[in-house]
């Protein structure tokens, strides 16, 4: 068998293995190799690109029966790229660059949730949702569960900036589920920009609108997908990564203010139990805001 070595950009050897003389399923073999590199490197396989002769390796077919050296690089673009291909209702979506549009309304289901390709597992990340078209109401934020994608995931938990209906005067911070209002936020209209600072190490989400801080809350200790909910045909949202230092406030400056819900909203419940079995939680305590006209 031919030998296969995988190194990182610094030249450190991550993995040395063998390439079979014949490959019955090159896609499966490449996936297995990615998992081996992931285990050896400590980097999620969905964020790894393997490079051979200066080009991304798409299949092991080109290496069949020969020795080779590959370079492993970290590619974070799946964290900030809409996942259309795996969306169960992708036929209702179109993409132009980083913008996704709801193209067709089902007679029964009138919305489609769209998630990023890979979840954020660590670090601090600042993204913007550019609301090119908001025709009724939308939710932008993060979710812990990939099955929120499509038109059957409206009850799947997450943490969201709710735009409010277009005839309303306010938006809201919705935590746990849609319409579980935790704080009043500013109303969102066409052309507005929702900012989201996700601190995956401290499990916190902060939101802004057009550069003005709105509020935030704690999150469960789980990987988080960026997500949006397209509610009307023509709704369009663009997801953009931004420098962390450009977010309008620092977490430590707001974590003790009334605009931050500094308590464990998931206390005492396992995440899958919370997601599937527990009834909606009444968040309308005396110390959190609500809106009557959302």
Automatic annotation (TrEMBL):
User: What InterPro entries does this protein's entry cite?
Assistant: B30.2/SPRY_sf, ConA-like_dom_sf, Ubiquitin-like_dom
Q: Which domain of life is it from?
A: Eukaryota
PROSITE patterns membership: UBIQUITIN_2
Keyword field:
Receptor
Determine if DNA-binding is one of this entry's keywords: no
Every copy of the Ubiquitin-like domain together lies at: 2-64
Name of the protein: Ultraviolet-B receptor UVR8
